[in-house]
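Q&A log
Question type: sequence-to-structure
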Amino acid sequence: MKTIVGYTDRLSVMPGETLHFMVSCEADVATYRADIVRFGSTDDNPWGRGFLEHPVDAEVNREYPARRQETEIGSYMDAGCNPTFDALESFSIQAMIWPTLIEAREQAMLSRWSECEQRGFALYVNRSGELALKLGDGSAIHDLPSGKVLRERAWYAVTASFDAVTGKASLSQTPVVAESGVDDAADLTSDARLVPDHTGLRVLVGAWGTHSGSEAASAHFNGRIDSPRLACRVLNASERSALWYLPLRHDLHGSVVAAWDFGRDQQSKRVQDASANRLDGILHNLPARGVTGWRWDGTEQDYRRSPDHYSAIHFHDDDVSDAGWSCDFAWQLPDDLPSGVYAARLHDGNDDEHVVFFVRPVAGKTRSRIAFLASTATYLAYANDRLFDEFTGYEVELGTAWTFGPEDLYLAEHRELGSSTYHAHRDASPIFYSSARRPMLNIRPRSVLWTFNGDMMVLDWLEACGYEFDVITDEDLHREGVSLLTPYRVVLTGGHPEYASRQMLDALDSFTGSGGRLMYLGGNGFVHCVAFHPEQPGLLERRWVHGAPRSASLPGPGEAYYHFTGEFGGRWRRLGRPESRLTGLDFCTSGFDTGAPYRRSAESFEPSVSWVFDGVAEEVFGDFGLAGGGGAAGQEVDWHLGGPDYPSGVTVLASSENHTWIMQQDASNENLGTRNAREHHADMVIFERPNCGAVFSVGSISWPQSLSFNFYDNDVSRITRNVLDRFHK
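Response status: OK
Response body:
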């Protein structure tokens, strides 16, 4: 049972910089110990060196008092508690809403409300699924429900007002598109018999406050909100209709307190107020943007070209972009700390936790001509993956029953830590974003041999074979481009660098085209487009545009453009950048039961490439490994089909054979006419690039998991070493 978890304020850090650690323990834990370690081997399989971590002398290595930290989950906009709001006596509220999860709980759309003090005002959905207006003075509450249940995924114009002179409260809901036989419109007025006290409270959109003086929020809304407005008097029907549109009508300027424009400046956390008061809001926990609003009519697919059609934000009660924990300890990394993969090892007497981070070299102080590119984009896309728990066909893909570990059970119980981009929100809308500022329990040692732990097999092999190397990350490469790679002669990937940004592909293409060498030691790599947030490190966006695997869900119509960058999402092949141009291979298929061996091709005996197999006696090799115990070709594999999407001069060195029916039943290649042309398998290829650049690709996620077999004395290790020795000289 897990009793301690943590995270850092960033994944990649340089010597001399300070890293902050956030830790949370279960209530019965009094203290825990933290020690900084550098990883050697992260897997305890007896065929390798076993689990190996090197202690690092650090002033933060000591005991700490334990505490349980709560995660702030759920998105909303906060416009603060400006004195302009305090001046409100009479007021009108309105918004367009598109609810997506009506359930027996309260959900606020626009509020200035303190739940603990029971005062203020709030336009919300009540426990019966009806629109309602709540007014409170701290001792009494007036609640005005519409009496009509809202439909899910239907747009409504909702308005409410309070007249301080007459004491009248009004409420209306009008469906934008009426449904035949459904009576869901309402327009009613009542005597409030109280004057709401909202002084000093925050104005929130998508939630309401817990109590004055607190930054906490609750009653999070599931659904879209468009065109929220606040006025300082009761508006008539004509004025309310005019207020849906910007710029504001001249005669309304003096009455409108705030008119938030959700369609502008989509990359920023700040939401612009189009009124003269400029009461801008700040978004918390990254709700979905780049989504269609109530005006969208299908004529424009790019939110940047028609912001008025994309003037909605989709809020969720399970959004999390930052767990919001307080820092428990901070470590300034020594100036001479070697590059590598490190962790803060936490131990509370019952449970161990490793909070992983990557130390990259300071510019100009690289220690080797070899760099390992950590696939942090892929780690983020899969972070807190719960496919074992939520995808009913997962064990069929695996070909075996899933063994639940303590991390799996913890994630199943702690939904507040968020899910991966392979999942959906509670309202069944797709998860577009993943954040590093939360515990990510599948970026841990001794976890399943997939993504992080599988990639660490390459680093373990490099260290065991005596190579000096640096570690860099995807996000480093995205933000710095090819200049990050120029000090190196060769760059190695892990087993599954599936996700890449355009900047990453540009950098790798430029690197190999100007004399650099790439060793792609994996499968299903560089296939899907992702975007990193331009302002906030550790935030990734991924939208399934061209088909959604497993339990992931597709975005709605008109929502294929990434809100972080404005790029069209999906597979790089569909975007004109097939993975084959970089690696010489194209993703073929997947199957997770067991691996298979490779067989050398006739071309591999040509003198120009036969050196790859120096010391390898047999034509069939790699019939071993940790991935299911079957062989070096497995899990997800790539093949070489040939044609205009491939570099010239590619030599197929070897191909896998004798895969099981589980591998054969999944044809993932999108090249029409070739899908069933031959038995699905992995290809190993090598080819030259301009200026003495070169690429070596193995086409299998399982390849790194065969490197340590027989204590690194095996054909897979020998081939990899032959290529690296040639490439880095």
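Response note: DSSP finds twelve helices and 43 strands in the chain.
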